[in-house]
Amino acid sequence: MKKSFKQWIGVSTTVVMAATVVAGCGNTSTKTEQATTAPGAAATANAKPFAGKTISLVTANHPWAEAIKPLLPDFEKETGIKVNVENFFEDQLTQKLTVQFTSGSATPDVFMYRPLQEGKLFYKNGWLQPLDEYAQKAKDYDFNDFSKSAIGSTTVDSKLAGIPIITEQEILYYRKDLLQKAGIAVPKTLEELTAAVKKLHDPKNEMYGFVARGQRSPLVTQVSSFLYSEGADFTTGEKASINTPEALKAFTTYGTLLKDYAPPGVLNMSWPQAFGIFAQGKVAFLTDANSLYQNATDPAKSKISDQVGFAVFPGGKAGSKPYSITSWGLAMNSKSANKDATWAFIQWATSKDIVLKTQQKGNPGARASIWDKPEGTTGFPAELVPIIKESAKTGIDHDRPTVISVGEARDAVGEIVQKVMSGETNLQPVADKANQALQTIMDKDKTR
Prior knowledge:
Blueprint: H1 2-19, E1 54-60, H2 63-68, H3 72-79, E2 82-88, H4 90-102, E3 110-113, H5 115-124, H6 132-137, H7 148-153, E4 155-156, E5 159-160, E6 163-175, H8 176-182, H9 190-200, E7 208-211, H10 219-229, E8 235-236, E9 239-240, H11 245-261, H12 271-279, E10 283-289, H13 294-297, E11 308-312, E12 324-332, H14 339-349, H15 352-359, H16 368-371, H17 385-394, H18 406-421, H19 427-445
Parallel strand pairs: 1-2, 1-3, 7-10
Antiparallel strand pairs: 3-12, 4-5, 6-10, 6-11, 6-12, 8-9
């Protein structure tokens, strides 16, 4: 690793110096950091191009953060950069970042963030430094190795607002033993899924055909794959589009599966409850994030750990179109006084060498080349790996409306599905009302 690290760090100083003058949409410009070494000096043997520099890194309490911490001494030794790390629970992290950025703080320099939850708000407020020039010009970085959908998640207004570190796709979980006993093939379409669910549904014996998130807001991310696979989306251009025939079909399919074939209490279920009852052996099929697989396969949590199968999300009218997103990314504070050193850290932390190491710890990265390496998949069940790779190729880069007011938008969408679950048969007026609510949110966001 030492040799390859010096190869890219040698050009990092000169490339990043040029890149830092590029201003993003609405971003407040700051004084460009002065070079710590003359051009080419970093290539000198044993040179430390950022000697004496200190950057602040804020992370979530997340397995990726635990995987990267033991590797930091190598980075500090090679660059001379001291990395001060703070970590917070997810909600605390968002609150801390918002407070500091609102006050114009130059710290933290680099931080973990959720691109689809707060990325658009952070970028519109000028808090995120665009990274396009950094990533495209960095030597040996191979930016094109990142999956297209993962980069799509971290892109705002055609600008790269962050670099992916954790990816996630929606997949189908199923009971191998139940399908084998009933002679049912693994469903490849939503029609086949519905038929299999009906056949295996046996509530008198506490066996339910299907479970997924039923709570109003949490369900939105999981119904998204149904939406895309029917050829619909939350928005089309600048217009809300959750009241189209394709959208209504998707919402009806998801809602009906939960209404007719899910365990009691599904209206109040998010992922912990859905996985919990699946792990108890009481459900045949579950759709949810691949990142949560251990809740079904860990013998300490699951009674059916050895009978869990994984499959690509079933296709609809438009084929199989699961979400394939960046759930966590690394971003640079636009007011950082250490932009070149900060980019050196981001480049290192998302390089092929380091992604391999963090992925081996079970953190699903965004680099295609690492998924193609046998040693890059050791942190995952062998049966799950091809499902992840296939989903990343066909997936959509968002799992919720891409707006600033995400919470309000999720509530508007979730209302439609919950009406289906409650037995509403005349769905068009419900969807029209929700669509208007989403459009109002989108229009309001334009003025923020």
